[in-house]
Amino acid sequence: MIRVLLAEDMHMVRGALIALLNLEPDIEVVAEVSSGDKIVPTARQLMPDVAVIDIDLPILDGLTAAAKIRETLPSVRTLMLTSLGRPGTLRKALAARVDGFLLKDAPPGQLADAIRDVAAGKRVVDAQLALAAWDRGECPLTDRELEVLRLAAAGSDAPEIAVALSLSTGTVRNYMTTIITKLNGRNRVDAIRIAEEAGWI
After folding, report:
1. Which end of the chain is less enclosed by CB atoms within 10 A, N or C?
2. Contact 64, 36 (CB under 8 A)
3. CA distance between the termini of the chain
4. Which residues, in sequence order, are bridge partners of residue 7?
5. Are residues 66 and 89 in contact, defined by beta-carbon separation less than 8 angstroms?
6. Cβ–Cβ < 8 Å for 46, 3
7. pTM (2 decimals)?
C-alpha cells in the first residue's frame, strides 16, 4: 500500500482528490493538510511514501516545503501539482529536486500512475510541460536586468527603480529597452508578462 500525504488548500479540490485516490486499491491517503507549514511536521509524524503537494499553498509555498522534505526526510518522495503550466515553474521544481510534476487538469488515472511511479523511485514530469520548458530555453536576461524587471513588475517607475538600485534614471531606461528587445516584447507590460509566464520573475 502506497501511503500518501496530500497538501492542497482548496477544500473541494482536496476532498475530490482524496476520494479519487482512495478508490485505488494500492493507494491510501493517510494525511491531508491545507497549508505548506504543516507538510514537514505531518510527514515527520506519519512518514508517508509520497507527499502530493500543490505548488501554491498559504504560509509556506509547495516548492519550499518540498525542498525541506528532501533535506530532512529524504525517504519521502514528492509529487508537485500545479494549475499553471509555466515552463519556469517546472524549472524551479526540478531545481528543488522534486520527484514529480503534474498539472492539476491531468486525468485522475494519470495522478494515480504518477504516484505509483514516484513511489517506485522514478521521476515523473508532465510531457506537455517538459516540451514547453525545452522550447522556452534559458532566461536571456542578466541578473541586473532581472532586478530591474522585478521592480517594474512590482509597479515601480524608472526613477524609483533608479533609487532602489543606485542607478541613474537614464540607465534604468536603457535596461528596460534592452529587456524588451531581448524578450521580443512590444513594451514594458508585455516584457513583464513574457517573463512571468516563463517563470523568470
Report:
1. N
2. yes
3. 40
4. 33, 53
5. no
6. yes
7. 0.69
